[in-house]
Design brief:
It contains six helices and no strands. The N and C termini lie far apart (47 Å). The longest helix has 34 residues. With 173 residues, the chain is mostly helical. The protein has one domain.
Amino acid sequence: MPVLELTLISFFAFLFLFSGAAKLRAVRRFRDQIAAFGVVPWRVAPVLAVSIPLAELAVGAALLMRVQPAASLAAALALLALFTGFIAWVLASKRKAACFCFGEEDGEISGLTLARNVILLALAAGAFAFSGSVPPASGMLSLLAGLYALSGVLLFVSAFHLLGLWKTVRSLL
């Protein structure tokens, strides 16, 4: 079903474009957070604070333009695996850290963050499995898939933020 494959590819395109742009918008805070982990030297943090969002933007753009869908999805899977591994490491080391996955700094990394990324990894793996059957972008089909995907990203990010808000409200009660 071409609409499903195109929708998945478009979903990840918009997700990575949104995430990369959000990190670049707050690049100084992102740099400070990277440095605060103490995993890399301070002088490397600015390079990572720029290169990580640029990589996300590049993957998002490649997916949006349907440039080698399988290779673009492989890059998306690699980034997601790297991010998910980092989230698992933060949780295992019992560190307290802001997520900053979509540019927010007030949401703390939690089991919910890890679950979200595992779901994203599964969806990306499914998109990768179908990537060989993706037809070239064509008018109305691409527009429909893009609208579905953009709606999906907005719902996905909104649901994640609402769950975080719900946790905060519950802790106040």
